[in-house]
Structures are given as C-alpha cells and as structure tokens.
Amino acid sequence: MNRARNVAVLIFNDVEVLDFAGPFEVFSITGKRDGSDPFNVYTVAETSPILARNALSINPHYRLDNCPPSDILIVPGGGGYREDGTPYGTRKEIDNQALLTWINQQSQTTEKLLSVCTGALLLAKIGVLEGKVATTHQGAIAQLTEMLSPAQVHPEARIADNDNIILSGGISAGIDMSLYVVAKMLGIETAAETAKYMEYDWHYDQLKVVAGDR
What we know:
InterPro entries: Class_I_gatase-like, DJ-1/PfpI, INH-QAR. With about 210 residues, the protein is of the alpha/beta class. It has seven helices and twelve strands. The chain has one domain (about 5-210): 3-Layer(aba) Sandwich (Rossmann fold), CATH 3.40.50. Helix content is about 30%, strand content about 20%. An eight-stranded mixed beta sheet has the order 5-2-1-6-9-11-10-12, with helices on both faces. Strands 3-4 form a two-stranded antiparallel ribbon. The two termini are about 20 Å apart.
C-alpha cells in the first residue's frame, strides 16, 4: 500500500480518554522521524463536541455521515452505570442503533477492526465476534462472557488477535495493542522505534496474546 492507511478513532460521550488517546498517539507518530508517515489518523463521532471522561471536550475531525473510509477502525471503551442505574459510555452506546450500524458497515471494509477496553461490548453487540477470541477490561469480563461464551473470552490476555479483528484489555492496554498492530503491519523495528519515541516501556515478546483461528 503506497498511500497512508486511514485510521479512524471513534469517540463518544464518556469515552475513556486513554482508550482513544493512546492509540491515536501511537498511530499518529509512527514514521514521523523518518518521514514515512504510514498512517493518516483522525477522530470520528456521531455528534460534536464530545465530552470524554472527566468532561474533556473534544471536537472530532469527522461525523459519522462524512467520515472517509477507514483502513483501520478503533473502537474504544469507557463508561458504566451511575448511582441511579443510568448507563453511560459504552453501556449507553450499546443501545445506540445508529452508531452500531455505522460500526458494522465500517467493519465490512476495514483492513483491521480494533477495540480497546469495553469497546469489545460494541463489537460483540453487532455480532462480529462470533467464533473469535476476545478480551476486555477486567470490570466487563462477565458482561462480555454473557454476550459471547466462556471459551471465547480470555481475562488474562492483554491482546486477543483474530488477525483482522484485534481486541485489547482495559485502558493502557490500547497502547500495547496499537504498537502490536504496527509491528504486524510494518515490522517490530518500526513499532519499537515508535515506543522509544514515546518513551513507553514496551516489550513485544512479553505481551500476553491469545490468537484465534486464522
């Protein structure tokens, strides 16, 4: 592929900041020092602005209806239930049919579909994880297992690799997964250079990865 791959980072209200910002950073700075710039990274949301966790206001680059086709789509997580039982973040978006339809449509054409943390719940909801291995944040393992099956969900895994669909554990695990994907696509040396630039302590050979059927 000669052109830069389009990397769409989905965001929504109450998205966990590091869930999306970690991968955004990894893909954005990969190849910056040698000028190769293999990724074109942008955010996309249903509405604008977005209020992430702790009221961080974000203006997405695109809306769902005008987002360029993505080669890589990242679905982050974040959220839970408020004291009165009201869902927020992914627990709310799991019933957002417009968003689910868009993710499903994108999944039909993306080279890689990635999830971080409870973003896995959204992938499970649209049915793309059938027969796949999966992982998520420790606090959502039970819910993901109910949606899939005990054999599919691996609580101990940092990364669940189904080749075209790759999931990570919670929050900071999204950085590890993103570097892992860079390594798969461009080589371990490129990923290591990116981690070094970020001053991120990353060890490819120490990642807890479970692989699905290819």
